[in-house]
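note to self: dont lose this again. the chain is below, predicted strucutre after it. 477 aa total, dont forget to put it in the shared folder this time
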Amino acid sequence: MLFNSIEFYFFFITVFGLYWFVFKRSLSGQNWVLLLASYFFYGWWDWRFLFLIAFSSFVDFTVGKLIDKGGEEKKRKHLLWLSLTINLGLLGFFKYYNFFADSLQQAFQTLGIVLDDFTLDIILPVGISFYTFQTLSYTIDIYKGKIKAERDPVKFFAFVSFFPQLVAGPIERASNLLPQFQKTRSFDEKQSFGAVQLIVWGFFKKIVIADNCALIVNEVFAGYHSFGSLEIIFAVILFAFQIYGDFSGYSDIAIGVSRLFGIKLMVNFRTPYFSRDIAEFWRRWHISLSTWFRDYLYIPLGGSRFGRFISVRNTVIVFLVSGFWHGANWTFVVWGALHALFFLPLLLTNRNRKNTHELSAFWSKEGFLSIPKMLLTFGLVSLAWIFFRADSVTQALEIIKRISSSEITLGFLEFKHLITIYLVVVLLFFDWLLKNDSIRFYKWTRGKGLLFLIIVIPHIVWFGVFGNPLEFIYFQF
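---
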């Protein structure tokens, strides 16, 4: 069920009514509403996926309680490894089995050995990468003594399957989300006003920005041989805004919808394309994933505590695993490797924490001097996006080769291109206004809020009626 579908509107109205009007005074009833609504929402994609998420939830609910009981350290560690093995095993089978099967066949073919095809017709469950990481963090945090195990299965199952962020994040920590299912929630009109504005902003990013950029991006990437270098560069830039509008738009809608139910999710994006280096970009892009890898992979591997070599090794591992997390294709591994390559010079020169403060204004001296840094960072990120978007590494290299040519074809900057440029400018304009506000529109009741409504809503209405709604990109991850 897509956020940008008529089915979701009726679904949301029904759940909202039951949640706040029928079960307003019952915490247990509200949790049941969220649990059943979340399973209905997830089962809308394919009812068979429900068995998988229910099994994963049952495993971690049970293992979490057993670890929390204490006992011998060896037993607790075995239980943790049981959770890790089952969850990562399911993720590996559904997401990566065919990838490794194909890679193995190709490797043997280079040696002149032909193997029978042993790939399987596997359907990738929507959101499996997201809720798997969410449940893993729960059991790991219990093992480390950071949280206590949840004893109420309704609260825990609702935490795992909470529908606004279930299929594309943010990847929540149990320490933040789970306690919110344990305490009474009340409707906050002020918070709800900000939540609606955030939802509207998310729809603008998705329907107006991402879906319009996609029309040009898909055309160019599908027939890149017939396009000139400038057109391909333009499409690559638009893909940067397509994936940002698509993914951060989903996160904004998820955070806003959650706030309407009295539940707060973490911020997942903070205007990443105003970053002054790659390190700052990763502090602003898909924050829930980057911090997950920091806390559950980078630091356990030793972080930066054991010298420069270990720090470099761990950084490379995190970026490679992050790339592979996104999809079963070597293009994502290369994408992760490129970001590691861009990040390492900052790490080796101790400049990876240099740009941690916000810019006050472009027209300040610092702001003016930061513009070239932002453009360079955006250029590096866009270069890596080529591999993220391409179907294969070979295609990505061919596209880069095509860009490096001097061939320029006619037809560049047609009306549709100019419209898309205008829309991206609107996006950047509001992004800049919002860059210092972590909860976005929460305080926007006058001034900027009115300007936002006047500019953004008509665009959503127009493109929502006459546009072509597309599925969110991150559903495939």
